[in-house]
Write a structure and sequence with these properties.
about 45% helix; alpha/beta; about 25% strand; 5 helices; 6 strands
């Protein structure tokens, strides 16, 4: 792996500071840390899940939702699996979602919630290359 890539830096942070916080998520009134070791494990697990869904090297996965850890995890996991990602604004209309999914040739889309799923559902029959829709939990 080239030393000046996002994935290299991710793995390097895991090696150098495995137990330091990589990111925080607010839960109730507290900010809960996720360590670099946990973060890289999440990325690896998601990359494995993408591959098990048939994601291939050079492929694209779309992400439809607001910023949150799952967004970054899936973006990095698509790179780890040899592909790339295309983000879609949560405010995009169903035709805009269709345009991005179709033109990125995404076979998988991650949606934040049922509201975002509904946008995909409305144009689903016009996206023959889209094989899987995954809902964030």
């Amino acid at each position: 792996m080239t030393e000046n890539t996002v994935l290299h830096r991710l793995i390097e942070n895991e090696r150098i500071r495995p137990n330091h916080p990589a990111y925080y998520v607010k839960s109730s009134d507290a900010w809960v840390p996720t360590t670099w070791l946990e973060y890289v494990a999440q990325v690896r697990q998601a990359a494995g899940a993408l591959i098990s869904l048939g994601f291939e090297s050079g492929g694209c996965v779309c992400i439809l939702g607001f910023n949150r850890p799952e967004w970054a995890i899936l973006c990095l996991s698509s790179m780890l699996a040899g592909g790339h990602s295309a983000g879609i604004y949560a405010t995009s209309s169903p035709p805009e979602v269709q345009y991005i999914v179709e033109n990125s040739e995404a076979s998988i889309i991650l949606v934040e919630n049922k509201k975002q799923w509904e946008k995909v559902r409305q144009v689903r029959d016009q996206l023959p290359g889209l094989k899987h829709v995954v809902l964030m939990r």
